[in-house]
Amino acid sequence: MAAISREEVAHLARLSRLAVTDEELDTFAGQLDVILQAVARVGEVTAGDIPPTSHSVPLTNVFRDDVVRPGLNREDALAGAPDAEDGRFRVPRILDEEV
Amino acid sequence: MSDLTRMTAAQLAGLIAGGETSAVEVARAHLDRIAAVDDRVHAFLHVDAEGALEAARAVDARRAAGEELGPLAGVPVGVKDVVTTRGVPTTAGSKILEGWRPPYDATIVERLRAAGTVMLGKTNMDEFAMGSSTEYSAYGPTNNPWDLGRIPGGSGGGSAAALAAYEAPLTIGTDTGGSIRQPGAVTGTVGAKPTYGGTSRYGLIAFSSSLDTPGPCARTVEDAALLHAVIAGHDPRDSTSIPAPVPPVVEAARLGATGDLTGVKLGLVTQFAGEGAEPGVMAAFRDAVDALTKLGAEIVEVSCPNFEYALPAYYLIAPSECSSNLARFDGVRFGLRVGDDGAKSLEEVMSITRDAGFGPEVKRRIMLGTYALSSGYYDAYYGQAQKVRTLITRDFTAAFEQVDALISPTTPFVAFPFGARTSDPYQMYLADLYTIPTNLYGGPAISVPCGLSEGLPVGLQVMAPTMADDRMYRVASALESAVGTLTPPAL
Questions:
Q1: Residues contacting B71, CB < 8 A, separation 6+
Q2: For residue A14, which residues of chain B lie inside 8 Å, CB to CB?
Q3: Does the beta carbon of B363 lie under 8 angstroms from any beta carbon of chain A?
Q4: Assembly and partners (chain A) (predicted)?
Q5: What pLDDT sits at residue A1?
Q6: Domains of chain B, with CATH numbers?
Q7: Residues of chain A whose pLDDT is less than 70?
Q8: What is the pLDDT of residues B462-485, one digit of tens each?
Q9: CB contact set of B300 (below 8 Å; sequence gap of 6+)
Q10: Which residues pair with B201 in a beta bridge?
Q11: Is the pLDDT of residue B352 over 80?
Q12: According to the model, what pLDDT value does residue B446 have?
């Protein structure tokens, strides 16, 4: 039995903000199924009361002194933007006109 | 002057400091070499000739003024294109960042500049460092100098191939699951992954933040150690940077070069005993183990029972982190924007941009990570993988109570022909079978050439405890003193 269906992959693509084509969906569904069946092997390990590891460095709550330091100026911050206007990032339409 | 491009970084620095050549001459020699061979190798995505010569002139001026130069002053270096370089194009091998010029330098780049190294340009890689062959670079693959029809490893294939093609004596890589070590192995060069937190991630375009580790690539172990020493050390701009002194890696490499490993205990991992590796790789590895024994090392077998779950755990943890990290590519603040016709919504433009800008492996991993983190699957996949990570760490800790370091082949197979593993992504993932456990644990590991199989390089990996990076340099350097460096056929 497949670990993941084509419909589930389509849903994942939507959640991931990827406008995949039908052709891509066909390819990815098969490939993700193979990968998921392989990685599901982690379930074979008995690990009920084992604490999870999120990263390997034994540090928590690393703070710096609260002092003002130079940061990016507006010009530099906007320099790589696909579109900018009046010193701001310009974005596509965010409000639905029909509402 | 004999060919400057054939020299080690240590030799070049000595010649420049002694006034026998200039940093400008050294930079020119490498830029000429790139111009001569890189159309065939394609190790570089961007060559910054002007910037390199300017940096070289500054080193020569400092020397003329009688200033003390650092140990790598004037030595050229290539930087993997996932590392930000102020004003110099940085794409991470992706179309979504084509033409982007970062407004700041990564910490390791700041340190390279401060040390007087001369940046030649940016090296090719699998898109966002996801891959083992550079076939997932949006700008076309890098060709292995040993056989131009074969992969140079990945994701840092450009950094490794640039060394093997004598285009640079030093390069920077990043290692999330083996992206420094596996390219080192298949190109006959040296690649070291420092302890996680030992080198700063500030300015690395993030793939998997709990695993990403920048590190040195070179043709000799001593050169790798010299570069390691320049880029390593605490950085307050990286919250997982370890506030401790850099291990004495250069001294350890020089100690190892004496060829004496008396009193050093090395472990062979039972779970790595041949399964999945090519016979030629295992034969070269066994010869190297014999060589290490002759140098005085004691070899014992060590069991790490959870290592067989490292690959599955990695391919849940790394994609999960990547699905979050790559959300920043939204077509608003930097990079590509596609489909903005004034009628489409932000969300539509974002989805069209991301589908157009990301390649297939990146999309697979984003979707895989989104799945592993989604409600209903989180505990069984991501949560379980994090527990397995704990068990793998315990395996390492227990192993290092018995031995000083672990050794294995770096990768199960030699450089494979282009196209051999792209149709079945999981076959590509197997390239990192032996390198991934270290990333989950966070310790350092190095790949050093140990011989040939069917005329192609084989690498031996040395894995050491966290913050004992010096140990792996000592062992790797001793092996290098016994088996020598590898020279590819002339291009």
A1: B10, B13, B115, B226, B229, B230, B250
A2: 351
A3: yes
A4: Heterotrimer of A, B and C subunits.
A5: 61
A6: 4-259 (3.90.1300.10)
A7: 1, 96-99
A8: 999 999 999 999 999 999 999 999
A9: B265, B266, B267, B268, B402, B403
A10: none
A11: yes
A12: 98
CA distance A41 to chain B (A): 6
Report pLDDT for B2: 63
The one-letter amino acid at B63: R
Distance from CA of A12 to the nearest CA of B (A): 6
Token pair listed for B185: 């192995």
Residues B154, B155, B158, B164: what is their CA dihedral angle, to the nearest 10 degrees?
Answer: -40
Q: How far is CA B280 from CA B59, B95, B118, B446, in A?
A: 45, 38, 38, 20
What is the residue extent of each domain of chain A?
Answer: 6-44
Separation in Å, CA B324 to CA B331, B368, B372, B374 = 16, 11, 12, 12
CB contact under 8 A, A56 and B196: yes
Residues of A66-91 as b/e, b for ≥16 C-beta within 10 angstroms? eeeeeeeeeeebbbbbbebeeeeeeb
Percent of chain B with pLDDT over 90: 97
Average pLDDT over residues B115-125: 98
Distance of CA B250 to the CA centre of its chain: 19
Mean of pLDDT over chain B = 97
The answer to whether residues B339 and B330 touch, using CB atoms and an 8 Å cutoff, is no
DSSP state of A58: -
Tokens of B288: 């190297």
Question: What number of CA atoms fall less than 13 Å from residue B480's CA on the CB side?
Answer: 31
Active site residues of B: 80, 155, 179
| Nearest residue to B357 (alpha-carbon basis) of B325, B334, B391 | B334
pLDDT reported for residue B21: 98
Express each pLDDT in B262-314 by its tens digit.
999 999 999 998 667 999 999 999 999 999 999 999 999 999 999 999 999 99
Query: Which of A16, A33, A61, A65 should one mutate to test binding to chain B, selecting the residue with the greatest count of B CBs within 10 A?
Result: A16
Quote the pLDDT of residue A94: 83
pLDDT of B275 reads: 67
A with B: how many residue pairs have Cβ under 8 Å apart? 190
The CATH T-level fold of domain A6-44 is Histone, subunit A (1.10.20)
Q: Which residues make beta-bridge pairs with B408?
A: B461
- Give residue B123's identity as a one-letter amino acid code: T
Q: Give pLDDT, residue A48.
A: 87
Q: What is the DSSP string of B378-399?
A: TIIIIIHHHHHHHHHHHHHHHH
Report yes or no: B348 at the A interface, CB cutoff 8 Å: yes
Per-residue pLDDT at B96 = 98
Contact present, B77 and B109 (Cβ < 8 Å): no
